User: Which sequence fits this backbone?
């Protein structure tokens, strides 16, 4: 696999220049700039230190230094310390985002508390109205506290805009993410601004409803009519336009104090079958994937994306016959070549693309997933992971690594949320942002 790091550096420099010009540079609060320096004021050159001082390489890193994906170094170290004392049952739960049926808040709350789940994904089948949603998210937060956590659980929802909006009628309706790309094509500066504002107000409104995660934005570059799954969910058929939309959206979600999830790596837009039903085969070469599919993900990483969702695709040039979400080679592409250090999460493990595979959760965890999203049976999957840890089939070190990233990003989310209160007129702001996005696009 050819090295992609130099390409990422060029992309990062480009998006930073674009962001600066568009007013997407350092946030006034200083918490969510597109790229984060690893240097801190306390790190001085070795030559300036007294002779008896430790060398620069021995100087501990400032715990307040941000990582490249959000949490500080100190938050990640604290998370690593926390999970090192967890039982196998706690560790197994800490890498699962469960699913549930019905509307009763008590059911998912019990799952989070009793199975120690990282959290749950809420779908349209779990919601009725605003009061019920608030009762559910409150019960989930209480369940996390009852499990001994001083950071919030993952309370996530697909709220992309357009037809993939599981809170329809409860949260503000936004147009398809395609609108972001169209707005940027029409007027790049205005397009990036309205895209960022749409993500900001979406995130704030979700927080007002008790959510901590949003499974958005979609970074897939569609091929148009031959793409049956993504389509208007994609920002554009142009990789560079899509990259600008993703950078602006990540910045908006960060400013809102919610964890965003860039999806579906390394790009679902060229698949000509639906992974909800079957495992799509993508025959693109690595060079084609690099040119067509990766620019939006590179932009996301340059803008400090906290989480990336892995697709269920058979990428014949990288890991033939294995879903990308379960292929170590795909995680290597994301981490080693693109330089992503944040949370990796699978697409839903209840989808047809991975149905019938033996222990898909274990395959994904071993391959490099940090979070296992919506397994078919949450309790059974939890026990499978517990047994695998106890038997050594999956190393405790791998599970601790995964769980620590999740805990760290939840600490970061809680800190941002505390610093950025939801305004009382958030619904009015969200409606205005939705209208502005649609107007700029059409």
Assistant:
């Amino acid at each position: 696999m050819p090295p992609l790091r130099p390409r990422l550096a060029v992309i990062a420099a480009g998006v930073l220049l674009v962001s600066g010009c568009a007013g997407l540079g350092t946030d006034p609060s200083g918490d969510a700039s597109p790229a984060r320096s690893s240097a801190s004021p306390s790190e001085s050159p070795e030559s300036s230190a007294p002779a008896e001082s430790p060398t620069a390489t021995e100087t501990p890193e400032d715990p307040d230094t941000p990582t490249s994906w959000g949490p500080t170094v100190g938050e990640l170290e604290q998370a690593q310390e926390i999970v090192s004392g967890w039982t196998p049952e706690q560790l197994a739960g800490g890498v699962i985002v469960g699913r549930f049926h019905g509307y009763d808040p008590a059911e998912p709350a019990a799952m989070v508390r009793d199975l120690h789940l990282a959290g749950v994904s809420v779908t349209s089948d779990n919601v009725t109205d605003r009061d019920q949603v608030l009762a559910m998210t409150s019960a989930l937060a209480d369940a996390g506290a009852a499990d001994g956590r001083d950071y919030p659980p993952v309370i996530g929802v697909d709220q992309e805009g357009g037809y993939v909006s599981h809170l329809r009628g409860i949260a503000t309706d936004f147009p398809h993410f395609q609108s972001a790309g169209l707005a940027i094509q029409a007027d790049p500066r205005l397009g990036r601004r309205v895209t960022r504002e749409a993500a900001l107000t979406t995130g704030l409104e979700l927080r007002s409803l008790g959510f901590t995660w949003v499974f958005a934005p979609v970074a897939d570059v569609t091929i148009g009519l031959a793409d049956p799954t993504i389509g208007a969910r994609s920002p554009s058929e142009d990789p560079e336009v899509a990259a600008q939309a993703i950078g602006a959206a990540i910045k908006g979600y960060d400013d809102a104090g919610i964890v965003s999830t860039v999806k579906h790596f390394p790009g679902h837009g060229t698949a000509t079958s639906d992974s909800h039903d079957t495992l799509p085969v993508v025959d693109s070469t690595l060079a084609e994937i690099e040119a067509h599919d990766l620019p939006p993900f590179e932009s996301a990483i340059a803008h400090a994306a906290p989480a990336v969702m892995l697709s269920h695709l058979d990428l014949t040039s990288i890991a033939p016959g294995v879903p990308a979400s379960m292929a170590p080679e795909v995680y290597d592409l994301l981490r080693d070549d693109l330089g992503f250090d944040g949370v990796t999460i699978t697409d839903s493990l209840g989808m047809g693309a991975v149905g019938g595979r033996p222990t898909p959760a274990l395959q994904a965890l071993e391959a490099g997933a940090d979070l296992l999203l919506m397994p078919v049976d949450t309790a059974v999957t939890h026990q499978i992971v517990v047994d695998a840890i106890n038997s050594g089939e999956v190393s405790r070190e791998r599970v601790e690594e995964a769980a620590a990233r999740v805990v760290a990003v939840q600490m970061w989310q809680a800190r941002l949320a505390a610093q950025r209160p939801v305004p009382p007129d958030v619904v009015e702001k969200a409606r205005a942002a939705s209208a502005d996005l649609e107007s700029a696009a059409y």
Summary: The longest helix spans residues 396-419. Confidence is low (pLDDT under 50) at residues 1-56. The domain at 5-23+88-441 is CATH 3.20.20.300 (TIM Barrel).
